[in-house]
Design a protein that fits this description.
8% of the residues lie in helices and 45% in strands. The chain has 148 residues and is mostly beta strands. Strands 1, 2, 5, 6, 7, 8 and 9 form a 7-stranded antiparallel sheet that branches. Strand 6 and strand 7 form a beta hairpin. The longest helix has 12 residues. The N and C termini lie close together (5 Å).
């Protein structure tokens, strides 16, 4: 259940968990994006409607892909999940939970992705004279977004 308060939450304190994958404590994600849903409008007009404009009714829901970014830790679990999807397909889908944390690190808002699976993996950009963290990117397709 979402926690209500006067001031908005900061977007910098969050947890991501993937069903069946252990994410080490200090190997959390640095960025989550793409938590969106769109309902496609369907235009309709009855032939005997005297108004010359169409009506709009709700159609199919479309869920955007969710992108997760994290520092490379040596864990191959996300790559193995990608390979599993390529070879076993449907059986490797999982629930992904994203929790926005309050100031006391309690879950204040939760998004759940249903039947998520990796559709894209991007390894880190490596540069010899940079002082940055190696970041890997996992893009997830899913079949539903629930908010608690």
């Amino acid at each position: 259940m979402a926690t209500e308060r006067e001031q908005p939450f900061g977007g910098f304190r969050f947890l991501v968990s993937v069903e069946g994958i252990t994410i080490p404590g200090h190997a959390g994600f640095s960025e989550v994006s793409g938590l969106d849903v769109e309902i496609e409008p369907i235009e309709y007009r009855a032939g005997n409607d005297p108004d010359l404009t169409s009506r709009k009714i709700p159609g199919l829901r479309k869920y955007g892909n969710v992108t997760l970014k994290r520092g490379v830790t040596g864990s191959l679990e996300f790559w193995e999940w990608m390979v599993q999807i390529a070879t076993e397909s449907v059986s490797a889908r999982r629930t992904v939970t994203i929790q926005l944390l309050d100031d006391e690190t309690n879950a204040a808002y939760t998004w759940k992705l249903r039947n998520a699976w990796p559709t894209r993996y991007v390894g880190p950009s490596l540069e010899g004279n940079a002082s940055t963290v190696a970041i890997e990117v996992l893009e997830l397709a899913h079949e539903g977004l629930d908010i608690e």
